Amino acid sequence: MLDERPLWELSEADRLQTPMFAFMQYCSSAYGVSLSDFPTLQAWSIAERAHFWTAVWDFCGVKGSRGARALVDGDDMLEARFFPEAELNFAENLLSRRGASDALIFRGEDKVRDRWSWDRLRDEVSRLQQAYRAMGIAKGDRIAAMMPNVPETIACMLAAASIGAIWSSCSPDFGEQGVMDRFGQIEPKLFIACDSYWYNGKRQDIAGKIGAVTKRLGVPTLIVGYAGDAAGVAAMVAGATTWEAFLSPFTPREVDYVALPFAHPLFILFSSGTTGVPKCIVHSTGGTLLQLVKEHRLHCGVVPGDRVFYFTTCGWMMWNWLTAGLAAGATLCLYDGSPFAPDGNVLFDYAAEEQFAIFGTSAKYLDAVRKSGLVPAMTHDLSKLRLITSTGSPLSPEGFSFVYEGIKADVQLASISGGTDIVSCFVLGNPLQPVWRGEIQGPGLGLAVDVWNEEGVPVRGEKGELVCTKAFPSMPVMFWNDPGRVKYRAAYFERFDNVWCHGDFAEWTEHGGLVIHGRSDATLNPGGVRIGTAEIYNQVEQMAEIAEALCIGQEWEDDVRVVLFVRLAPGQDLTEELIQSIKSRIRSGATPRHVPAKIIAVADIPRTKSGKIVELAVREVVHGRAVRNKEALANPEALELYAGLNILKN
């Protein structure tokens, strides 16, 4: 049953003031079409991709030479080329302003505060660019960073992009082998690391790990001071130098931006690696810039001076996404550490004091805030906050309700989904459409998103595979070390010919929005009926007794049975009464097919470094199969809790 009223909708007067509406008018005038609302704009953006992406370039003021052709071989997903004659530079577009106003604001829990002006950011990029070149780094070389989300990391990335070097990063909580599984594949010319970092109020010493990684990579290392003694760490690591020593020979001057082809590699991102060595996903300069400028400027409505925050580490693609806010003239609000240190108010304190316009986070964080009893709407001045974005996992309908009841009643809540594979979103928010409880507002402009059944037929009103049927600019250029693009084809194009299959289990709603029911490879299949794990989590995780849940399908008697693992709230026990209460909640809130055959209490739930629970790894352990890359997990020891459980033997 549909909710009768949306949770949020712009007034007509406010709708006319949005950048997306201005863009719609621009396209109508420039191309002689009649575009009156989001559905007509979306349909035109797919039907006329060359015109649409040209309009994004021109309307958003992308700096560079666009060239005459916008799209070549557009009907072939793997061979399509956008703007084949274009030349541009990512860093030039992000260093969009000058002056003493804030470009970057930083907080490291309650330990560190910093602010960088646009002029300071530009000066540091200039000095880093000169230092890179002095050590022989050139176009196409890789720079790898194990860094917190601090201003220096953005400066290092922009300096790399300015000369056409390829940037790759992870967070400093990765273990030695996890770092090597990623950076060892791409053979960087320089390794950048912080001296130590703060987490949950404690300083985390990583000097030994830096030394080990430096030795195995066999390259020079730049030590950036953050939470400890950079000089001391540099003295311990052979071939290491401090930030100050690295930059001291150079004085700021105008940044020299190398003009690069649209498809020139910009970033190497990594798959989670929970099923093997991480895949190295290479994203292009032009595709990344154009897609992210579209999302910031049009979908998020970012205007110069807006304060944009996303809670992310440098090992999650949302960090790459966040940095592009600079191209819209935004001030980026950076944070590193625990979102609950010193307490659960820390991010809302930050939002109130710096007057965030956009607050980006994860569904897990919003659920944790709800369960903690915090009500920021009553305790914090969030008057400037107009958009909250949530990703990482599906946001439950109850999560939607909490945002409007507990955080802000008149905010746009955009649940978004896409990922590392496209360094952006397939489905997300937009200011021209209402927000309905439990729904993602719609597809991204220029993206031919659909839901197909297993026979490759588009479906409405039923669940299926999230696909994209036409090429788009932010598709990966390639996978690193993938001759013949064998791994690339297998990752996205094996299921349907010439159609991107994203691996999400999704459903269109009657409002034209979407619901993501979980990952396709984690879909449960009892009795041959496909069930999304998110449908179960949406029920169970609303119960006060349950802190978190993880669900798998266990192979059983020539079928599959649903097994639910629950991490209980403090002071709770998994009594027979609670088991029956869980089953009743799932039966009434979902369907009888969703009801687990077994419910088991566990002390911890394994997750990736970016906080995503890993159903596949648990499924492998339960079936006695090896998990090939535990280094990808934040808490690999948790997997031991799922091995050899007697309760699953009958």
Task: Summarize it.
By secondary structure, this protein is of the alpha/beta class. It is 31% helix and 23% strand.
Form type: globular
Unreliable spans are: none
Helix content: 25-40%
The overall pLDDT, averaged over residues, is 95
SS elements, strand count: 32
Distance between the termini: 38 Å
Structural class computed from helices and strand pairing: alpha/beta
Radius of gyration: 24 Å
> In DSSP terms, counting alpha (H) and pi (I) runs of 4 or more, how many helices?
21
- Beta content comes to 15-25%
- Main sheet makeup: 7 strands, mixed
Strand neighbour order, sheet with most strands: 6-5-18-17-19-20-21
Write up what this structure looks like.
By secondary structure, this protein is of the alpha/beta class. Helix content is 31%, strand content 23%. It contains 21 helices and 32 strands. The strands form 9 sheets. Strands 6-5-18-17-19-20-21 form a 7-stranded mixed sheet, with helices on both faces. A 5-stranded parallel sheet has the order 8-7-9-12-13, with helices on both faces. A 4-stranded antiparallel sheet has the order 25-26-28-29. Helix 13 links the parallel strand 17 (307-310) and strand 18 (331-336). Helix 3 (38-47) crosses helix 4 and helix 6 (118-134) crosses helix 7 (151-162). The two termini are 38 Å apart.
